[in-house]
Amino acid sequence: MMAKDEVELFFHVRAATELGEENSRLRAATTHTTATLASCELTLYYNLCNVILPQQLPQPFDERHHHIDITFYISPEAVSLILSSNSPLSNITMDVLREKLWPSAAAKPLPFASSSPAEWVDFSQQSLAIAIASILFNPVFWNIAARSEYHYKVITKLAFGNPYYGCYLLAITIFSIGIFRDALYENALRDQPSLDILTTTGAKTLAAILFAAGNILVISSMWALGLTGTYLGDYFGILMDHKVESFPFNVTSAPMYYGSTLSFLGTAIWFGKPAGVLLTVEVLVVYLAALRFEDPFTSEIYARRRRQRAVEAKKAR
């Protein structure tokens, strides 16, 4: 069990063709470093294909299909000693330590011409899985919450029977989980490889344009709809008198969703991350799926009001 002040570092060391020599070098490096860093605990695990191996690894070893996984638990005080050490272990871990502790010194972008698309996204990163889940969760949450409110007045009851307070409560919740999702998205991008064609000046310019356009769509739609119109007020019975047809709704029928998608894409390109582009595709797919549920339901809410008004008008005659 690691102490709270320890740093967990994971990395892979490609085995040389002469495995016996490589294994001896690693053992020697471990012995040397443990002696040098006598005050810290250093645990070394040899792992081949998820199986703990004895000290003497089997031969022959095919480096095309296997690698040695090494996990180090190193106290922060030991980091500077490792970086300044001339041991073989220092040579192995230098880049990994710097990438983990100082993100600004991360690995160089992958070359588009000579790299494989399989290298562009690191699916082993837990942060990527968390970002995928959060992107999926948000629209599912607010659709379930809104329909629960429409049918059972769940949120209004929590807001002491006031539909406006209920709508404000839902607005705060949706806004908060949106900020949290964006933070998880950015955190996931930091753990992903970059691609050189996405780090050019032209790519940066495109990213800025996409991000600005996306935010213009989002902010202007919020301005046009107001707070209750933006945050599902119609599910609370807070209906608008007229359909909004001014900008940005004269450009697209769902400016909030498409604007958010553009912002995600702009962020992905700005950081040069193909994984961000992939997550943006998920954002778009999730939003399009949400629209298939939301648009017909919202249309029915307003159609029901028109029918009620027609009935009331007949009674008034």
Structural write-up:
Helices cover 61% and strands 6% of the residues. The protein has helices at 19-36, 76-84, 88-101, 117-120, 126-152, 154-158, 163-190, 201-230, 255-270, 274-316, and strands spanning 7-13, 47-48, 51-52, 68-74. Residues 1-79 and 86-106 have low confidence and may be disordered. Strand 2 and strand 3 form a beta hairpin. The chain has 10 helices and 4 strands, in the order βαβββααααααααα. The strands form 2 sheets. It has a two-stranded antiparallel ribbon with strand order 1-4. Strands 2-3 form a two-stranded antiparallel sheet. With 317 residues, it is mostly helical. It folds into 2 domains: 7-107; 118-316, no CATH class.
Number of strands: 4
Main structural class: mainly alpha
- What is the helical fraction, as a range of percent? 55-70%
Shape: elongated
* Beta-strand content: 5-15%
SSE order, one letter for each helix or strand? EHEEEHHHHHHHHH
- Number of H/I helices: 10
Pathway: Lipid metabolism; Phospholipid metabolism; phosphatidylcholine biosynthesis
Protein name: Phosphatidyl-N-methylethanolamine N-methyltransferase
Keywords: Endoplasmic reticulum, Lipid biosynthesis, Lipid metabolism, Membrane, Methyltransferase, Mitochondrion, Phospholipid biosynthesis, Phospholipid metabolism, S-adenosyl-L-methionine, Transferase, Transmembrane, Transmembrane helix
Function: Catalyzes the second two steps of the methylation pathway of phosphatidylcholine biosynthesis, the SAM-dependent methylation of phosphatidylmonomethylethanolamine (PMME) to phosphatidyldimethylethanolamine (PDME) and of PDME to phosphatidylcholine (PC).
